[in-house]
Amino acid sequence: MVQVDLHLHTTRSDGRLSPTELIGLLADRDLRVVAITDHDSTEGLAEALEAADKCSQLDIIPGIELSTDIPGNEIHILGYFIDYSDIGFQKILGEFRDGRVERAREMVGKLAVLGVPVDWDRVLELADGGSVGRPHIAQSMVEKGYIRYPQEAFAKYIGRNGPAYAERSKLTPAEAIGLITGIGGLPVLAHPREVDNVESMLPDLKAAGLIGMEVYYGTYPSSHVEALEAIASREGLIPCGGSDYHALGTPDEAQPGFVGPPLEIAQTLYAMAGKQSELIM
After folding, report:
1. DSSP state at residue 217
2. Fewer CB near the terminus (10 Å): N or C of the chain?
3. Residue 218's CB: how many other CB atoms inside 10 A?
4. Do residues 184 and 87 touch, judged by C-beta distance below 8 A?
5. Other CB atoms within 10 Å distance of the CB of residue 92
C-alpha cells in the first residue's frame, strides 16, 4: 500500500463518489496525503477539506486537472496547491464548464444519428450538477446496454477520433501552466504515456513552468514506471502520480492506496509550495 495519491476525481467532475464519500474511502485505506483534481472544477474542494478535517491522519492538497490542446492530441495538466478562491480563475473555469456542456450536447446529437441515442436529461443527472464530461455520456450508454464498460464508449464512439466526438475550446499547455502558476500552483504533466513524442515537448513545458510529471500512474506497468522515472530524472522534473480514480467500477481501474509516489515526493511538493504538513514532517 502507498500513502500518497495525487490524482483523484469526485462527482464535481466525472467521478462517481461525492467528495465526502471519496475522503471516507481514502481514510479507510490509511492514505496520508491526497490531491483532489477534478476536471476544470474546484467545486468539490470545500466539501473534501471539511470531510478531511474529521480525519486527523489525512491531508488534502487542493488541485485541478486542466485539458489542453495540441495538434492531433491533448495534454492534461494537473495543478497542486492552487488558490482556488481566485475570482479570475473561477471565471475561466466557468467558461470551460460551459464549453463542456455544449460539447456533450453535440456528442449526444451525433450518437442519435449513429443509432445509439441517449437521453440528455440522464446525462445531466449523472453529472449531478458537476462539470459535464464524456464519462457521463459513456455511463448513460452503459445504462442503455449499448456497451458493457465506459471505456468502450471512448474506443468506439466518443474518443478523439470517434464518430461522435466533438471539440471544445481548450487552452494550450503553456497557457494552462501559466494559469496554474498565476494562482500559486504547481503544474504537473498528467499521464504522459498518452501523449505522442512527449519527451520532445518537455523542454518547452519546463520553460513555461512545469515542475513535475506523473510517473507512478494508474495501471502503468513497472517497465513504464521505470522509463518515466528515468525521463523525470533526466529532465529535472518531480516524479508524481496517483490512481486517477473515478470509482467507475471497471475491472482494471486503479484503486487509491495501491499506486502513487513515495511520501518524500509529497514532502518536496509541500516545500516547493511553501506549505507545511504535520503528517509528513
Report:
1. E
2. C
3. 19
4. no
5. 15
Dihedral sign of CA atoms 187, 12, 23, 152 in order: negative
Number of domains the chain is built from:
2
Q: Between the CA of residue 159 and those of 5, 23, 74, 107, 112, what are the distances in Å?
A: 26, 30, 11, 11, 16
Pairwise CA distance, residues 41 & 129, whole Å: 11
Tell how strand 186-189 and strand 73-80 pair up: antiparallel
Residue with grid cell 502507498, as numbered in its chain: 2
Q: What Cα–Cα distance (Å) separates residue 132 from each residue in 151, 163, 202?
A: 17, 20, 30
* Residue 165 domain flag: no
* DSSP β-bridge partners for residue 62: 36
Taking only the tens of pLDDT, the chain with its 281 residues reads 899 999 999 999 889 999 999 999 999 999 999 999 999 999 999 999 999 988 778 999 999 999 998 887 889 999 999 999 999 999 999 998 888 899 999 999 999 999 999 999 999 999 888 778 898 999 999 999 999 998 899 999 998 889 999 987 779 999 999 999 999 999 999 999 999 899 999 999 999 999 999 999 999 999 999 999 999 999 999 999 999 999 988 888 999 999 999 999 999 999 999 998 876 66
Span between the terminal Cα atoms of the chain, in Å: 20
Examine the domain organization and report whether 71 and 112 are in the same domain: no
User: d(Cα 191, Cα 1) in Å, to the nearest integer?
Assistant: 21
CA dist 71 and 83 (Å) reads: 30
Q: Which residue has the cell 487542493?
A: 62
Rounded alpha-carbon distances, angstroms, from residue 21 to 52, 108, 195: 11, 29, 32
CATH number at residue 132: 1.10.150.650
